[in-house]
Amino acid sequence: MKKLFLPAWLCLAAVIFSCATVPTETEPVAIASAVPGAAGTSTARPPERPVKPPVPEYIMGKGLVLSKDLAAFLLRTNPGAERNFVERLAFFYTEEAAIEGVNHDTAFAQMCLETGFLGYGGLVTADMNNFCGLGSIGPGQKGVIFPDPPTGVRAHIQHLKAYANEMPLVNPIVTPTVGAARFRFVQRGVSPYVEWLGQQENPQGKGWAVGAGYGSKILSIFRNIIGASAESPAVNPLPFMPNLIFKEGDIVQFTGGGVYVSSSSDIPTHSRGKSQCRVTKTANARNPYHLVSMDDSKVHGWVVAAYVQAIGSDTSKSPALKPIDDIAREVIRGSWGNGQDRINRLNAAGYDAKAVQSRVNQLMR
Q: Which of 191, 225, 324, 335 has CB atoms 3.0–4.6 Å from 163's, for a disulfide?
């Protein structure tokens, strides 16, 4: 038999081919998965979209939008609003809602609806600290008035909780400065859903407002909020570091609110009511005062400055006078207390309390 000699290049090709893996029916071949729209089985994963907070269905729950993002949204919608006030207001909503278990996203969106994004223009005016139209019925009843923004926010949160369920409040019921308390008029638990805050959508015909689609309007605002929210760090910082009015050893009045485990915590561990306390530590931080109660109210922890007022603190050594605009903004932030206590402290520090209040009113417009 004649031997057949093949060219060297052909032998090499045969060896290479024989070593290759031949796909079979039991070993499916992946089709160019990197090419969008390619046919067959694809192993490529589409890029993940940023996760947005879900639109809240219930009034109760944990809000997910950070206070700085809530404030940024409102300021974009109403550029004329005073930044420091808006940031402080957003913080109060996140804290008060956390204490009562209300979804702060829903509450803030409702505030935007009721106040026209703090533009007002209706019966309720900015100086009333009424952020949800409580008691606003007509020209003869413009609505109830609260002494300061934190109290107005607390009243709003308490009313939302009343509509949502029959659970007891953590903090005492807010009493307005002017007008009757509205809490007793609420039929508890009739509106667990945001949609049911509108009486026309509520199966029982109850609810917050009579206008059609009231709850849907709140949810529409919330969708705009999450659409405008930028990616944020995990910590929800206080927009500013408050001036330390009190020192270690001072006896102060804690007006009631959240108590934190550290000076930098952003979620309260529990809430306590009004109490006389001793300042045991201070920090230039989010929660600047560590308080220990002098009665049986069990306050023991760090608190924000806005809920601490003077009781016999030594204010005789006042610092150099600041510009009236700076003091007015500190008043808006809650750094000088409320009511007559605020007036006394301003006067004792060498400021004209009436002039400061006049400037506060101008800034709040």
A: 191
Question: What are the pLDDT digits (tens) for 302-334?
Answer: 987 777 888 754 433 334 567 888 888 887 766
| pLDDT confidence bin for 181, thresholds 50/70/90 | low
Question: What are the pLDDT digits (tens) for 131-158?
Answer: 999 988 777 778 889 999 999 999 999 9
Which CATH fold would you assign to the domain 67-228?
A: Lysozyme (1.10.530)
The pair of structure tokens assigned to 308 is 């601490």
Q: Where are the domains of the chain?
A: 67-228, 251-364
In degrees and rounded to multiples of 5, residue 321 shows phi and psi of: -65, 140
- Taking the C-alpha atoms of residue 126 and residue 364, their distance in angstroms, rounded to an integer, is 7
Estimate to the nearest angstrom the gap between the alpha carbon of 232 and the chain centroid.
14
Rounded to the nearest 10°, the torsion over CA 230, 233, 237, 239 is -30
Backbone dihedral angles phi then psi of residue 343, each to the nearest 5 degrees: -60, -45
First to last CA, the chain: 110
Q: Which amino acid is at 49?
A: R
Phi-psi region of 131 (alpha: psi -120 to 50; beta: other; left: phi over 0): alpha
Nearest residue to 263 (alpha-carbon basis) of 212, 294, 224, 305: 305
CA-wise closest residue to 317 among 356, 342, 349: 349
